[in-house]
Design a protein that fits this description.
β1 and β2 form a beta hairpin. 44% of the residues are buried. α30 packs antiparallel against α31. The protein has 946 residues and is mainly alpha-helical. The chain is built from 40 helices and two strands. It has a domain of 91 residues. Bound molecules: 2-acetamido-2-deoxy-beta-D-glucopyranose (5 copies). It comes from Podospora australis. Its main location: endoplasmic reticulum.
């Protein structure tokens, strides 16, 4: 039945069917009234009123029929027009006016698409379905039938809907992109890429799908022409020159990859491993990416460059990350048909000679900037793929890997900076750190490990160029360091890890001798000292000292036992070991460690500390003298002891030893006095200092005379250690003590420098007066005693001499004052009579006159108005004195003497005159009034010699 409806009512009816999604009725209506319901009008009605939620397959057939102009009209069917029949025409016209049908063309309509209503409709419809219903997944079935209809439809489907659909529905539905279709299309490339890939490789389990994402999201997205720069409108395209930036869209993808390298390297590595570049696209068979040869070449080149740049950008310092970097380099070599890379493990094993392949312009000093800037620029000399850049990067990855594996974590870029900046200090620091790490972290007892480590150290410098055969400077990350430096550091590591045999075979036995003898010696010595300095225990059979001992003996053909270095070290070890027997704290609370001895400014003073901290240790004088000698022989007293291989001359050494011995004896004397052991102090004075020659110009000795003087000034107290071999006679002991003190003072006089003589003489005089008084008192007491005619028993005054006096008369000289043994003998033999004592004092004095001969001569010269150059008046010569003794007199004294003499003869310098004055004063006030009788004046008792 033919319906007769006005055009307005027809339109309203069509709208009605559209709203009801009654496609069958609409089809019939449209078929029957095609003059009014024309294609464009129908498309606008559907666009505006067909529900967006309607499945595409419900109306795609209609669109196809409409497009072809073949809407079917089954005459058997009728349409229901009841919805519009009752309307008045006016009402119908009014309603049509209010329909507000959407236009097919909008401002966004792509230029060139505007002549095709179906394409325009499909695009608008797609946007609306997405926006109003969110049914992105309905769009393929809507658009697919029209793929060949228009490139705009195809682009929309393949380049936008496909990626978004995969991204939001298939790949990462949990985190969909929240943009509408049209909004997404408007986004700048960078934002779009980052959105598409925002979930790519985010979780560890996503990593295997990074390639899928790139292929499935980015691949289709790049199909859009807009992602490619329009070629210049020139028919004759000059190939190659225009290539840079051909595909801004690709550039964004590549930038994304390099950014990932810095942030999350595993994503970048997965990308390069799983994706072959922009040409590697999965378009779901909805299209093909058609690239020209130049475009293809361009994107492949750019992709390879991005892969190299990514290797530089990896910021994690793990072996795994570096393995990833290596795989990227290998991939680049592969896709660009460059020199292929061996597997990483074999590269690390063979350490390939890469230096030859690295052209000089790569290691140019202009290039460090490219490590950080413009990674994807075609002017970047480091990332532009070539055999040279690949070899350079391979070398850097291997270098960083070697460092990292050893325990010095390094990035590719860090290795690149070392190689390119060529800063010697930086390289040195890194090399030292590296060798240190080798030394600390490896399987130390495995010689193979060490051999390999050495090869690595040397390779890092040269990257495999043959040292001898090339004039070209080395290019590696240690390029500025001398091979000797590396060898020395390595040898130190070997030795401190007790790899002595290997050290011997590498540095002593090999014919090429990597280190010359002198450097080798210095290195061994330095390492031995490092072990020494690290020691905490001064016992040489343990820890650091033991190691020091082993190291110094490790290369016997280089440092023989008899070598001065070996001897010096032996002395050092002996000296240190000797200290282990004592309690010794130098700084508050800190126990002594060997290094303290080695660096001490005044090592001999440590003996003073021992004496302070170890009661009675002063009795071990000989041990301390040996110790002092060792210290000198160990070089500890030389001023530039930091230089291990400079030595004292034998003469200097003898002088240092002599100085040390004098000082140590003096220290022991002081310590003995401090502990009130006068007897020991006295015995040291007479035995040690008494035999000393006066100090010479080369021997500084301000200690001996002071010690002798201290002993001479010592006064007995209750605390004084009693001589074990004497009786209890206090008077006897007092006199004996005074004699001993005088003897000490006499020693002091003999060895002291002239300016100090006055002080000693004063002490001498006082002691002498005391002795005088003591003798007198004794005499009086004896007289009183004789007068009483009493027996010896019960005598007051402490003379309880009950020892038989049988041998008393025939005793030998009781007065060999310096020899305590003979004194003991004397004491044990017989009681000492007062007369004997007096005589003894005189004799002691007489005998010691000779010791004062220099002084005496001076005095004689002064008092007697100059007795001539020889000076010495013939006085009673003491035993052991002879004429040659005058030549043994101290230089000071000889100077004094000759000075005074020569000044008398002709007048000399002021200085000598002053000395003479001092001497005169000493002689006048001291010698004449006090001990004058000692110097030759007739004594109170006649000297009796036997
Ligand atoms: C790179 O090296 C390979 C293999 O040695 C060689 O075949 C190729 O020609 C080289 N490429 C260039 C650009 O020099
Ligand atoms: C230093 O001493 C410590 C322990 O005292 C030891 O573990 C370390 O290996 C020593 N270092 C060297 C270089 O000898
Ligand atoms: C040194 O060490 C050895 C071995 O540990 C030990 O037998 C010896 O007594 C120590 N010597 C001293 C003086 O401590
Ligand atoms: C005093 O004379 C004795 C005997 O000759 C000698 O052993 C001693 O060293 C002398 N003392 C001094 C201080 O010269
Ligand atoms: C003197 O010696 C006698 C006999 O050995 C002894 O009994 C007496 O106590 C002694 N006197 C003194 C003061 O030591």
């Amino acid at each position: 039945m033919a319906l007769v409806l006005s055009p307005a009512k027809l339109v309203l009816l069509a709208v009605h069917y559209a709203v009801k999604a009654d496609m069958d009725s609409l089809t019939i209506l449209a078929a029957r009234h095609d003059t009014i319901l024309r294609k464009e009008l129908l498309l606008r009605i559907i666009l505006t009123y067909l529900p967006e939620t309607l499945q595409s397959n419900k109306y795609v057939a209609f669109l196809e029929q409409l497009e072809k102009g073949e809407l079917p009209d089954p005459s058997s069917k009728d349409v229901d027009a009841s919805s519009v029949e009752s309307l008045s025409e006016d009402e119908a016209t009014k309603r049509v006016r209010k329909l507000r049908l959407l236009p097919l063309k909008t401002n966004d309509t792509p230029v060139g698409a505007d002549d095709d209503p179906i394409s325009l409709f499909l695009i608008q419809r797609a946007y609306k379905v997405d926006e109003e219903a969110g049914l992105l997944n309905e769009l393929p079935s809507l658009l697919l039938p029209f793929l060949d209809h228009s490139s705009y439809v195809r682009t929309l489907l393949v380049s936008t809907i496909l990626p978004l659909l995969r991204r939001n529905v298939e790949y990462h539905p949990e985190e969909p992109v929240q943009y509408t279709l049209s909004a997404f299309q408007q986004l700048p490339d960078r934002v779009a890429v980052n959105l598409l890939l925002s979930q790519t490789g985010v979780r560890e389990e996503d990593l295997p799908f990074v390639g899928r994402d790139l292929r499935g999201l980015v691949g289709p997205w790049l199909v859009d022409e807009k992602k490619w720069r329009k070629r210049r409108q020139s028919t004759t395209h000059t190939d190659g020159e225009d290539d840079d930036g051909i595909c801004p869209g690709c550039d964004e993808v590549l930038r994304w990859i390099t950014t990932q390298a810095a942030k999350n390297w595993k994503v970048a590595v997965s990308a390069v491993q799983q994706w072959a570049g922009p040409a590697d696209a999965d378009l779901a068979s909805w299209g093909v990416l058609e690239l020209t040869k130049e475009q293809h070449e361009h994107v492949e080149h750019a992709y390879a460059q991005a892969a190299l740049a990514s290797a530089y950008f990896i910021s994690e310092t793990s072996a795994e990350a570096l393995e990833g970097a290596y795989s990227m380099v290998a991939k680049v070599a592969d896709i660009r048909d460059l020199e292929p890379l061996p597997p990483l493990s074999s590269a690390l094993a063979i350490l390939p000679p890469l230096a030859e392949q690295i052209a000089g312009d790569i290691t140019s000093s202009r290039n460090p900037t490219y490590l950080r800037n413009n990674p994807l620029s075609c002017s970047n000399a480091l990332t532009t793929p070539s055999n040279a850049t690949v070899a350079f990067l391979e070398a850097l990855v291997l270098s960083a890997h070697i460092l990292t594996k050893a325990g010095c974590p390094s990035t590719v870029r860090r290795a690149g900076e070392l190689a390119l900046l060529q800063d010697e200090r930086e390289q040195k620091a890194e090399a030292t750190k590296f060798i240190h790490a080798i030394s600390n972290n490896g399987p130390k007892s495995d010689d193979k490990y060490w051999m390999r480590a050495r090869n690595e150290v040397l390779w890092l410098r040269s990257w495999g160029s043959e040292e001898a055969s090339t004039q070209i400077p080395p290019k590696g990350i240690f390029s500025q360091l001398k091979p000797e430096f590396l060898e020395v550091e390595f040898l130190k590591a070997l030795l401190s890890n007790t790899r002595y045999n290997l050290a011997r075979s590498l540095y002593e036995d090999e014919s090429d001798h990597p280190l010359d003898r002198k450097l080798l010696q210095e290195t061994i010595y330095a390492t031995a000292m490092t072990a020494y300095d690290n020691a905490s225990n001064p016992n040489r059979t343990r820890g650091g000292l033991k190691k020091c001992d082993e190291i110094i003996k490790a290369l016997p053909n280089t440092i023989a036992k008899t070598d001065p270095i070996a001897r010096r070290t032996e002395s050092l070890l002996k000296a240190t070991h000797a200290l282990s027997e004592y309690r010794l704290v130098l700084k508050q609370g800190e126990p002594f460690t060997p290094i303290v001895l080695r660096v001490h400014k005044d090592p001999i003073s440590i003996i003073g500390k021992i004496l302070e901290q170890n009661p009675k240790s002063y009795t071990r004088l000989q041990d301390f003298l040996d110790l002092g000698k060792r210290m000198v022989q160990a070089g500890l007293t030389s001023h530039d002891k930091s230089k291990g291989t400079t030595f004292l001359t034998p003469e200097e050494e003898a002088n240092h030893i002599s100085t040390a011995e004098r000082r140590i004896a003096a220290m022991c004397i002081d310590a003995a006095l401090t502990e009130d052991d006068f007897e020991t102090a006295y015995s040291y004075v007479v035995n040690r200092l008494g035999s000393l020659s006066a100090p010479s110009a080369n021997i500084q000795d301000d200690y001996s005379w002071k010690a002798a003087l201290q002993a001479g000034k010592y006064r007995r107290t209750a605390r004084t250690v009693r001589p074990t071999h004497l009786g209890h006679s206090s008077a006897n002991a007092d006199i004996r003590h005074l004699e001993q003190r005088i003897e000490c003072l006499a020693t002091a006089l003999r060895i002291a420098p002239p300016p100090t003589l006055q002080e000693i003489l004063n002490a001498f005089r006082r002691a002498e007066e005391e002795l005088d008084a003591a003798l007198k008192a004794e005499e009086e007491q004896e007289e009183e005693w004789d007068a009483r005619g009493d027996t010896m028993h019960g005598m007051p005054g402490g003379f309880n001499t009950t020892i038989p006096t049988t041998s008393g008369k025939g005793r030998r000289s009781s007065t060999s004052a310096g020899k305590s043994s003979s004194r003991r003998e004397q004491q044990e033999e017989a009681p000492m009579s007062l007369f004997d004592l007096a005589r003894a004092s005189g004799l002691t004095a007489q005998r010691n006159i000779s010791a004062l001969s220099g002084l005496q001569r001076a005095a004689t010269g002064l008092i007697g108005g100059g007795g001539g150059g020889n000076g010495a008046r013939s006085t009673t010569p003491g035993p052991g004195r002879n004429s040659s003794d005058s030549t043994h007199a101290s230089e000071h004294q000889q100077h004094s003497l000759s000075g005074s003499v020569s000044s008398l003869e002709g007048g000399e310098e002021h200085k000598r005159a002053r000395k003479r004055d001092q001497l005169r004063e000493a002689a006048m006030s001291g010698l004449v009034s006090g001990v004058g009788w000692l110097v030759g004046a007739p004594g109170p008792t006649a000297p009796a010699r036997e």
